[in-house]
Amino acid sequence: MEATKSFLLLQKLYETHDLSKEEWLYLLEHYTDALACSARELAHQVSTHYFGKRVYLRGLIEFTNICHRHCLYCGLRSENENVVRYRLDQETILACCEEGYKLGYRTFVLQGGEDTYFTDERIEALVKGIHERYPDCAITLSIGERSYASYLRFYQAGARRFLLRHETASKQLYESLHPHMSFEHRIKCLKDLKTIGYQVGAGFLVGVPGQTMEDLVEDFCFLKQLDPHMVGIGPFMPQKDTPLGNFTSGTAEFTTFLLSLIRLMLPDVLLPATTALATLDPKGGEMGLLSGANVVMPNLSPIEVRHQYALYDGKVYVGTESALCQQQILNNIENVGFIPDFSIGHSPRCC
Ligand code: SAH
Ligand code: SF4
Predict the structure, then answer these.
(1) Which numbered ligand comes closest to the C-alpha of 243?
(2) What does the pLDDT profile of the chain (351 residues) look like in tens digits?
(3) Is there a contact between 289 and 338 (Cβ–Cβ < 8 Å)?
């Protein structure tokens, strides 16, 4: 009887793209391998309907690992003295774009810690510099919290996408993981970005210490309401020099189950198979794609600094130069029957 109910809820999610809080909780609490298998099949069907076999490639440039924040899980938190800090200058970032452009990328994702050196003026100049040189490419920023005015300025300079995970939609858990940060402000940033017109990516950590099924229900309900263009979820991965360094990671199986559920809830959303998932399990990237994911973000950062962008331990591809990293990822995509797509790949809702 119980098994039947969870499968019926899955079917309801597939048909209506929505569940009540009680239904979400029931579904998550009754997770089994068989349920995950059904969710994966449905999610795969939905993503194929919207995107065919295409998997969008985005080139990731990790341009600074300096951060003034204190997120308990992250190796880049300001208290971590064991990480060698770096920031790339504009010329080096443009050289990464140049290499990426030659490799075929038409989206550049500029990600970094919240580094106060990168004032609004500097980010604006950087975005303008890339936009002028590569007008046929999309620029995505992932640089944390700023004011409405700052986000607007970057948009006017040419940035069109912004990734800002909400990390968890539970205010209590959020505040326990992010000292001196406000949950309300995080949510305001996401809403500001949407209002300005960005294609917005939200998302959460799976299996972060202290997370309950009720917290995950909040994540699903929040995402349904926000209706972002992209959702980035990945397993929590311990980083030894952080206060959460001794906890165990989230699991690949549960993360891919949640990926499937997001695909069913937001059928045309862009959904990356994250590096954290690929790090956790050698088959994680492929499992993600087969569970409804349709975006991959190979690394274009200079090889000398890759290992210093240590959000968590054991990150894959840190020692692999961009072309080879891309080749390995392309092989993984093709191995599971998908087709790598280097086009600008806007959210279907923006075309
Ligand atoms: N500073 C920006 C962007 C860089 S961090 C920001 O915080 O938005 C990018 C993402 O890395 C974060 O959103 C977080 O979800 C993820 N991350 C950080 N530490 C992690 C860890 N230990 N395990 C898994 N993901 C982590
Ligand atoms: Fe800084 Fe982002 Fe890491 Fe938080 S998650 S410490 S904001 S880099």
Answers:
(1) 1
(2) 677 999 999 999 999 999 999 999 999 999 999 999 999 999 999 999 999 999 999 999 999 999 999 999 999 999 999 999 999 999 999 999 999 999 999 999 999 999 999 999 999 999 999 999 999 999 999 999 999 999 999 999 999 999 999 999 999 999 999 999 999 999 999 999 999 999 999 999 999 999 999 999 999 999 999 999 999 999 999 999 999 999 999 999 999 999 999 999 999 999 999 999 999 999 999 999 999 999 999 999 999 999 999 999 999 989 889 999 999 999 999 999 999 999 999 999 886
(3) yes
Q: Is 189 annotated as a binding residue?
A: no
Query: Which position has the token pair 């098994």?
Result: 3
The residue whose CB lies within 8 Å of the most ligand 1 atoms, and thus the one to mutate among 70, 74, 145, is 74
- Residue 319 and residue 326: Cα distance in Å, rounded? 13
Could you tell me if the CB of 77 is within 6 A of ligand 2? yes
Bridge partners, 163 (sequence order):
201
Separation CA 35–CA 96 (nearest Å): 42
Are 32 and 10 contacting, i.e. CB atoms less than 8 angstroms apart?
Answer: no
Token duo for residue 15: 């048909």
Domains of the chain and any CATH numbers: 2-350 (3.20.20.70)
Q: Nearest 5°: phi and psi at 96?
A: -65, -40
Q: Which ligand is closest to the CA of 274, given by its number?
A: 1
312 lines ligand 1 (CB under 6 A): yes
Ligand 2 contact via 74 beta carbon (within 6 Å):
yes
174 lines ligand 1 (CB under 6 A): no
pTM of the model: 0.98
Beta bridge partners of 341: 56
